[in-house]
């Protein structure tokens, strides 16, 4: 039986859709033997009405720019989402029953393995902030009227990130965003903080500037009226706050604690209790609009900033200038910053292209999520804050990788070299943290020309791309127009008789060059490798250096764990030739001091490099280069 | 001139204190050449009244349990805090002027280098959630009437973590917590979202259950009345929302954008404009109370749970059971969990000791912060959630190390071995992330008896101590009562002719043992090392294995970066003997599958270990052991 979607007298047929969504949620999870059916069942009526009447989506054309967006912030309710796809005819019943099986597109929590899923969810409190990003794209970038629907749970309303989202959405007047709050009272292990106190949420939401509608989440007519009101509300986003019953429709689990995340024991009995399988198909309305998305005018070719050898400039400044140049040449670049744009220099872009700059304020989780949301719509987001503060958004970065999102993140003020501000402002773990993100790229330039080129490269790189910049002005050692490929490195000093190799990145490159000069005076030739691409790493250059020298002094403005030194070690782990690596890194917790004092105290300045290189050089061969045959094992 | 602190007619003398706080903030930052004087100046009147009348603190006895607590959530206003210490006579004027100098206790952002500073701040949005933790200690644990005062900025009210704090404080009726909101309108690079719209904040705070008082933050009488009202309010926490002027008192910077984070150019002129240096001392009231803190009764000796060889149990279950046993024997243990206690098994403790269990709901930032706050008062917090979700609190964990906090964190459901729930629920980066925390301890037990013993050990370990547990039941391979020291390891298989060494932890230990059996059938003896202490690492055992065998197969349910494999590589980085390391780890993004399928797909199961070990064994020496003399370089 195919549903007509346009008449209110369809309420009875919508109840059948809801019944099917419940039944199919149970069938999928029971077949899998795991899943969260009761969490799906509470939202079935809400989603039935959405699918039957309000959702504007072409399942045959998931990339249609006019499509609405639906994000399950309560990602564990995935059986419901997949049941909706089945009801819409997008997947078969056979595929529905592959839920949670190896190789299935229907994973335990939704991922973009499915073309109709924008982003991976399952870490609570993320879907709404990401939805804010998509809605921002709709209102500010695409300038198309698609609507972003976000289904949230109630437990996740305790996550601060949700309130970053609520605040930002209201501040930006995102009336194209509708949040559907499934208030089913029961969290994983008992009642939530506020149970069915819908007024509590409504009051908080109105205080933050949302329109809020409280309803019985199982009354089809109320849902219909609420969605109609939400889609007609102008100037502010709307939250439909729905009082629901977890496990609705099956008495043995309905509103009962202890059934979270468990397939129902008696699936057949539950299905009978629900009234059996209706076998309905929903014809989801397609978007009516066909205007093209708005686009920003560009001027080409790209004119990156050019810095003169012998002068000094901060790589953070070069980021800002290069980003502005990139945005002039590429209309898809959009920039976000966390209220530190005069420090990260994102403000250069902001001043020149205010239409494409979005201030995210001090809310790094929302900033990361907005970047993820914008790239859903094909925009190319560059987001920046102090490198230390990206740690605030680490779960969002982790999930962005699961989402296969393409985002560019810049972290400034890396390392002890920021000086007197002290450790709260210093990133000393970010290379490790970003390396440990699936398929990430980790870049750490040492000069402004290199930074500018890498900013250009980042924009064409898939995945999570991280650029680490420095507060201090550092010498320009490369020429404008020099090419720097991701995965490459630069050998800055090399001779036919190098005793040791110094591997550095960012600020320590300059310390390494100073050290190499000192060592040269003492008759010790040191190769210097600028490892600006920490991940992916230039194994070939490192292998050549391992063959030619006694080993490596690696030096990083970072803790010893998980950063540049360990990245170098990993190259050689299972190779014939496994060079010595003297790993210089920050080991003591810094206090306040000047940048030069900080580098010295941390044992990562030129003097420390010289000392380490001297000790390493005693192992250098008398004759060079070594042949592989000389080295057993 | 010494101030009397008890009479309202002191308002004029309090204005002098405020003047001095402004003057000293300028003197300190101008001497340093850096700092945030304008951010300090906006809150000077607020802090003057606090210091003069409401703060109950014995500067000579910072560990007095009855002391109030003062946390600068706006940590960059550190000049003001230090000026307060000087006014109270706790530091000299000479020390004040060491601000931001190398070796000074007066760092750019406050740290517990100073005995009157509870925790390090400077990463915005953290001080209030940590204050919630201290207040929880006061109300639920110590049961003493000390008050927690938190000075916040306005920019940081955009941080979701602040709203986790506001919600939790209201939910717990923390009327011993007073937040002083310094609403000076100007963020780092321009106006905040809401400027001087105090009503906006008041409405939001009342909606979340706080008492809110709006005042002119430069009207001493209003401040006095507000603090009196706040300290008399019962049943809910109070926020004093103060309209202030950034840079108040110096016309050239007052309420002007562009002066954030800069020492004043004309310090002398500014000090003259403020009225010069009053040179006042404040006699801060000491706490009157002398009752001892509440303590929980204990039963000793500690009776850890005992698991029988040959049976199976999940290490996450052992965590829960051991924690409950530990809490019976130690009255300082307090447990927090993020609404997953039936999964982490913190619920075992919760059911037995509800007085010492605090449900933190789905708000991991607040949970980490509460742990930090509680250990300020000497409690021993154990906090748990899924390992993947500790990434939500990574900035709090980073800052907890700067605070030199002692907290025990448990992350369950580690790795691909959780099975069908899929990657959103899997921690695959946590070993790297936690290794890269200063002075952390990273433990990953493989059996329940080992887990129980490590839970005991954790409680006596300083710093950030992280325990990674597994969802699946795994075989019991150790005996109850076996000792496991942090920094140790266990050699599970060893012979006189080991060809290779397999290094594993957690779930891969069992895969390693299976692999070793298979290899033994093929005449390849494999040493198996259970590296349950990933950090600190047992270098001695690893060095012996490097001498005795052809090298290591490391195998971890974790990405390849920054985890167990790289920890092993780092041991040998600069040593004579640098063994081959075949690093098995998860490389592809997982989908849904059974635990066994996940391990196989990830290439970290027994079959993968066998294959890697076979390939490695071809390098084994014909004669054993190798002498160091045989190995050049």
List the SSEs and their pairings:
Two copies of one chain form a homodimer.
Chain A: E1 2-3, H1 11-32, H2 37-41, H3 44-54, E2 69-72, H4 78-87, H5 93-96, H6 127-142, E3 148-152, H7 160-171, E4 177-183, H8 198-207, E5 211-216, H9 220-232, E6 238-243, H10 267-274, E7 281-282, E8 312-314, H11 315-329, E9 333-337, H12 341-344, H13 347-352, E10 357-359, H14 364-376, E11 380-386, H15 394-402, E12 407-412, H16 430-435, E13 441-443, H17 448-458, E14 464-468, E15 473-475, E16 490-493, E17 500-504, H18 507-521, E18 526-530, E19 533-535, H19 539-548, E20 551-555, H20 564-572, E21 580-584, H21 595-601, H22 606-617
Parallel strand pairs in A: 1-7, 2-3, 3-4, 4-6, 5-6, 9-10, 9-11, 11-12, 12-14, 13-14, 17-18, 17-20, 20-21
Antiparallel strand pairs in A: 8-15, 13-19, 16-18
Helix pairs in contact in A: 1-3, 1-4, 1-10, 3-9, 6-7, 6-14, 11-17, 14-15, 18-22
């Amino acid at each position: 039986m195919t549903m007509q979607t346009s008449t209110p007298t369809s309420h009875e047929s919508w109840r059948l859709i809801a019944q099917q969504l419940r039944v199919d949620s149970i069938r999928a999870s029971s077949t899998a033997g795991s899943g969260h059916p009761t969490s799906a069942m509470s939202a079935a009526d809400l989603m039935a009405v959405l699918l039957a009447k309000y959702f504007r989506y072409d399942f045959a054309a998931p990339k249609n720019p006019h499509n609405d967006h639906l994000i399950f912030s309560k990602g564990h309710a995935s059986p419901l989402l997949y049941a909706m796809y089945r009801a819409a005819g997008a997947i078969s019943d056979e595929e529905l029953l592959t839920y949670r099986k190896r190789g299935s597109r229907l994973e335990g929590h939704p991922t973009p393995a499915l073309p109709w899923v924008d982003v991976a969810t399952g870490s609570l409190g993320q879907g709404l902030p990401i939805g804010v990003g998509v809605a921002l794209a709709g209102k500010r970038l695409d300038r198309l009227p698609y609507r972003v629907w976000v289904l949230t749970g109630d437990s996740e309303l305790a996550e601060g990130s949700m309130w970053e989202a609520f605040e930002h959405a209201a501040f930006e007047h995102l009336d194209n965003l509708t949040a559907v709050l499934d208030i089913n009272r029961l969290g994983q292990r008992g009642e939530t903080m506020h149970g069915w106190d819908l007024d509590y949420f409504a009051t908080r939401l109105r205080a933050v500037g949302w329109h809020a509608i409280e309803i019985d989440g199982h009354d089809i007519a109320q849902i219909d009226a609420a969605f109609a009101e939400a889609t007609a509300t102008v100037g502010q986003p709307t939250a439909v706050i729905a009082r629901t019953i977890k496990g609705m429709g099956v008495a043995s689990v309905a509103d009962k604690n202890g059934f979270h995340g468990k397939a129902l024991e008696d699936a057949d009995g539950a299905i009978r209790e629900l009234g059996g399988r209706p076998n309905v198909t929903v014809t989801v309305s397609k978007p009516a609009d066909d205007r093209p998305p708005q686009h920003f005018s560009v001027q080409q070719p790209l004119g990156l900033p050019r810095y003169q050898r012998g002068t000094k400039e901060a790589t953070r400044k070069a980021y800002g200038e290069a980003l502005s140049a990139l945005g002039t040449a590429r209309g898809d670049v959009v920039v976000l910053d966390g209220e530190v744009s005069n420090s990260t220099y994102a403000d250069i872009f902001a001043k020149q292209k205010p239409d494409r700059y979005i201030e995210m304020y001090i809310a790094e989780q929302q900033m990361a999520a907005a970047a993820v949301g914008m790239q859903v719509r094909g925009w190319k987001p560059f987001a920046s804050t102090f490198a230390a503060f990206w740690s605030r958004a680490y779960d969002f970065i982790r999930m962005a990788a699961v989402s296969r999102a393409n985002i560019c993140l810049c972290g400034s003020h890396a390392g002890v070299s920021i000086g007197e501000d002290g450790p709260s402002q210093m990133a000393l773990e970010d290379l490790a943290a970003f390396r440990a993100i699936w398929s990430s790229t980790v870049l750490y330039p040492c000069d402004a020309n290199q930074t500018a080129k890498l900013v250009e490269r980042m924009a064409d790189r898939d995945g999570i791309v991280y650029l680490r910049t420095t507060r201090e002005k550092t010498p320009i050692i490369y020429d404008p127009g020099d090419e720097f490929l991701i995965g490459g490195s630069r050998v800055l000093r090399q001779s036919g008789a190098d005793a040791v190799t110094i591997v550095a990145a960012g600020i320590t490159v300059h310390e390494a060059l100073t050290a190499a000069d000192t060592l040269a005076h003492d008759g010790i030739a040191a190769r210097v490798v600028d490892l600006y691409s920490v991940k992916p790493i230039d194994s070939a250059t490192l292998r050549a250096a391992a063959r030619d020298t006694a080993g490596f002094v690696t030096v990083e403005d970072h803790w010893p764990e998980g950063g540049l030194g360990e990245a170098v070690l990993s190259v050689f782990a299972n190779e014939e030739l496994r060079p010595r690596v003297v790993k210089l890194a920050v080991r003591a917790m810094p206090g306040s001091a000047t940048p030069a004092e900080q580098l010295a105290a941390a044992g990562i300045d030129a003097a420390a490099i010289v000392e380490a290189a001297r000790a390493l050089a005693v192992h250098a061969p008398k004759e060079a280069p070594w042949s592989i045959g000389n080295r057993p094992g």
